[in-house]
């Protein structure tokens, strides 16, 4: 096994704009504060998430918001632009995901759990799982990115709204960066109205409740919860969460 | 949350003609008897289920049988006509399922379990899960039905033959409607010979055995067993506890 | 099966004073508001839960606080007085628990989960499970209470602090009674200092966070979460499905 | 590993008279028919199982019935006589169970599942698990039976009424011996009235329903279902069910 | 149920050349030694598994190695030639898998577990599951093989490297054929260098470690571990592992 | 939360002499090499583990061997002397375990898994779980040790022979200390003959196989595998394995 580099590359892959803000940007902010490189990938453009705004216009708004959020911690944003609500673990989207992983060449990957309650989330999780082995194989046809390192990354699955079907067994203390998380979520201004209308939910209050609840379990003020994927030789002996 | 309407719409989605009769029409009959609206969707035409009768002829027979069964309780029949044994959770069938859900706009959905032993059953279950979020989003491309309500339905997974991999945690007492269930299953006359030939099974006797066994567990004469899908804000509070 | 009576008897069994307040008194308050009879059993005297106050003095304080809390909703308090931290599923404590169940003769039992993180909680749960069958058998030796009804009660397991190892699949909307829950928890004044000192926890803030988090999952403002015990003929048919 | 002997000793351990008849005597009858030696151990005297008949009288009745049942297949009956409803995994009952195992020195053990819904069933299962290692250790104090072979037996957990919490993964075809099972269950005449009164259950009809339901799953007319205990070197490579 | 034939047909389906050698050829060798017919299907050509050798050349090498390995035990090799790392449970590959199953018409199927850590392994497992019901249905469109027997085969899932997420509950003693397993794995000469380079693994040493570890659990020198698929009437009463 | 001290106290609790050597002394050796304090507690005297040597003599032999092993890494040995094969989670042994925990006042606890295949292992695990909360409560009656810190330790469950029912999700690389582990296990000379006789096992070869197999999964030469107990505020945010 090659040694773990001093400066890690951290890739977070969410299905929609705001998924990462709700579930893992506190951890990303801690990585960034420790000097590691952070890449945020938003797999779909979020263009179906509003009953009033039409898809093309919405995608543009959502991308600007995601860029503003990433900028808060100096993260790079990857934006494959898949149609919202139509994530499938098929050949075409597999190729997109392999390229996302190759472009980031990560030491740690944070993404949705395969038990998440939203189909796009589940399929993004499946695509990450499916692409992990392939990012380092040089002869795969029809990829736009060259192969990167083989087999280096650890995968952590992140929480979901309400913790449906999810029992974290790793917690990251995000108390020192809770204001950063609030600021990043606040960048997604267009989502607050949609969530209020579709699900009667105040997203900011929801985020604070969940971070506080996970903190209660973990023994700190605010926390984010994760489960690690167990896989063959995926660096199981090294613990790299901050 | 909008209030639960007094007259519910109940949608049952089975993969093949006779799946609903075997696993949930007792519950549907009770809903119908209580004045609720019942929609029965049979996702495939069942056209591969016989070693002698050719597919087109068989599909026509199976549809007439399904219509006769639905008529017994005054249910509406939806019949997308997917090729039997070829259910896939892909884009095309996703669109079909979203339209099924939109046409029914249900308060309760009964469908196969994701742990069922038959691939068509599993994929129908997956398609229902995948389409739930999307039935209420108005800008999805290429749908034939307009968006319906967002996020109202509860999903219950139904039993399978022999209870393979399935431990119900909800039971419905179908003793008062067992004759209705028998009559509806009896409408599927063409299936009895095929099941006897392919699986050496007397379907009617099998149905009575299973209903009686679930009744033993539940504490009544005949019962149907279900497991509820836990999901974010899918009406989790509407239950028998106060 | 005898018919469910119009006025139910609800028994909640907690290991320590304040366990019921933290995890289920919202549900009890709703039962009480609906006219049902509520019995709160606190199995230990809570006499070990303070590093300064000596056991006998502490037990007296804790009992007064529990009585004040029960009085808020007009509940009857049962107080077997077992030594705190020394709950065991042995013969002696089994007899105590059978007598608790016989005295209450409940239609519904709320208690700790067998997967709880505290040993006293686990053993109380086990004692309830072990005593359920026996409350209705008249010839058991050495009981002080006569046998009550056989096999009528449904058992629900309640949440724990931080939701460790616990995924609720039943939720009760306690929004209308959240002030009652606050008032009942507030009766346990002697606990707030101990929890702050031993676990650095503000109990009232913790209770609100957990009730709000469970509400987010359930789709209401405040909720309490439960899992139902599946058991042979324990009234499984009495549910919201028809 | 010593070779498996041609004539096996089969030990079934139930908590109450009739438990073995309901859940595993079909399998025992097949073993007996194949020339193996069968020992039936009933751990309690069943003396609490009637609301009218007093314990001592009931124990005598139950023992005669168990003896009659065992005689049908030429099985030996072991009767430790523990008080019904008071099975505990404590030192005293551990010693009793070790002696039961030593007396039988079995190649195969059938007993209740640790997930059973009745506390006596669970504790008998736990006592069997706890005693397995010890039956072959010669210096254990206060046993009445000498040590037998070390580590030879495979343990199978049996079904329960209604299959609560139990998914069999081994099935034995008992179609050829279903009349024997009926006859053995019929020996327990005193139980039929008690079950009808306490649980409104016709035991014989219940037995046939369950055997038929498990047969449907297994692909035969009547079956009994089991789960095997996985344990270190407990003969995992040898399959000895008939 | 038709009787089990005296000479069984055993089909093993692996995703890549060497998967069967690592996880189940000991069992295949025992079947072959007992006179049964063995068919080894390698679903992909393994053409992506080397960072230096180009895909077409690699596929040719891998096929020759697989043929040499199969020849050791006189097994027939099926080679659908799917592109390595691009297994998908879609319509096209379903058709290929149905034809593989029809060509073999097996009594027993050994394949990857659905919980395996490699996506190709998982999807091969899913394709086998999905194709099982369909191999016996004569009217499926676009197949190249005629329908074979319906519903006869039992499916066993095999181990993976390191036993990630896999707890076997069936073990086959492969001590008598360990040299055969070594010889068959040794046929895959081109893999040893790739595994050493990509995963720093000595495949032969790894195989011996795993076989020995499973043997420790099973109670023999060398073993292979499996989990059986539970499914409706898939011959659950018959145990056919050697 | 108080800060984690620079020099940790590590407590390992095994049921029998040699349990720690087989399952966790590699990890202990790494802790010791890093300058932490290591305490090894052997709960029983191992006095039943031989068919020839009588209990009192055997206990003396086993204790000398355990002392020699602990001395290799400079660990302190605790020896409560419970009778082998008679571990029970009752009041008397709870008190012993609380005193063990108080004497060590640990930051990390390694012990058996509650799913272990040996009853003594399971009950030691349960006693550790049950005693964790109580070690810091000063008024518990009849303890010989004064209360220590409240709520500081993390609990890790260790592997068992053959990995029965155990899937590690934490691995410690013990390659640098494998010779130390060998030396410590070698101190238990009296066990090698007993294991060979009772279970036909070469303990040293078994240890190397298991350490190598876990290393394969983890991605190193030799590893020990663990699962962490999730519990309320038990320091979940701090990862302290080396």
**Would you count the extended β strands of chain A for me?**
7
Strand content of chain A: 5-15%
The largest sheet of chain A has its strands arranged as 3-2-1-4-5-7-6
SS class of chain A:
alpha/beta
Instruction: Evaluate the radius of gyration of chain A.
Output: 17 Å
Average pLDDT metric of chain A: 91
What do these coordinates show?
6 copies of one chain form a homohexamer. Chain A is α/β, with parallel strands linked by helices. A 7-stranded mixed beta sheet of chain A has the order 3-2-1-4-5-7-6, with helices on both faces. The longest helix of chain A has 18 residues. The mean pLDDT of chain A is 91. The interface between B and C is medium-sized, with 35 and 34 residues.
